[in-house]
Amino acid sequence: MKKILYINILTFILTSLSLFYQRYIPVNRIVVDKLEEVNRLAGGFPFVFLIDGDFTSPGNDISALFIFWDLDEFLLNYFILDYLFWLSFILICYLYFKKRKNRA
Predict the structure, then answer these.
(1) What b/e readout covers 72-85, taking b as 16+ CB neighbours within 10 angstroms?
(2) Which of 35, 59, 34, 63 is nearest to 51 (CA)?
(3) DSSP alpha helices (H): ranges in 24-75?
(4) Are the CB atoms for 76 and 4 separated by under 8 Å?
(5) Secondary structure class of 91 (helix, strand, coil)
(6) Residue 43 near residue 22 (C-beta atoms within 8 A)
(7) Is the pLDDT of residue 68 over 70?
(8) What is residue 82's predicted lDDT score, i.e. its pLDDT?
(9) pTM for the complete prediction?
(10) Residues paired with 27 in a beta bridge
(11) What residues does 29 pair with on adjacent strands?
């Protein structure tokens, strides 16, 4: 039971740390009465799950805290996919090291 809890905590930490991988992505926004593609800063690896909002600081910054104030756009589906990606990565590593330990 403790291993499952530790693995899930580590997965959440890795998912949160993936926000440091930031890149610009094109996002459709309304700009002066028409729809245009605007480059916005986004974070998350391998799936982008946090996109810089329209009303943030001029420094163009994303933060997990801005989710609660509705300043940044949080994509729950991609967050879950990102979480599952890191969970599978950790489980594969865990099983590999467990098999290697039993072999020695």
Answers:
(1) bbebeebbeebbeb
(2) 63
(3) none
(4) no
(5) helix
(6) yes
(7) no
(8) 97
(9) 0.82
(10) 38
(11) 36
* pLDDT 10s digits, 15-67: 999 988 999 999 888 778 888 888 888 999 999 998 887 765 555 666 666 55
DSSP H stretches of helix in the chain: 2-17, 76-103
**β-pairing verdict for 22-31 and 34-43:** antiparallel
Q: Provide the residue ranges of all domains of the chain, joining segments of one domain with +.
A: 2-103
User: Tell me, what DSSP letter sits at residue 73?
Assistant: E
The beta-carbon contacts of 75-82 under 8 Å, at least 24 apart in sequence, are 75/48, 75/49, 75/50, 75/51, 76/49, 78/44, 78/47, 78/48, 78/49, 79/15, 79/44, 79/47, 79/49, 81/47, 81/49, 82/15, 82/18, 82/44, 82/45, 82/46, 82/47, 82/49
For residue 41, the one-letter residue type is L
Query: In this structure, what token pair is assigned to residue 16?
Result: 């949160």
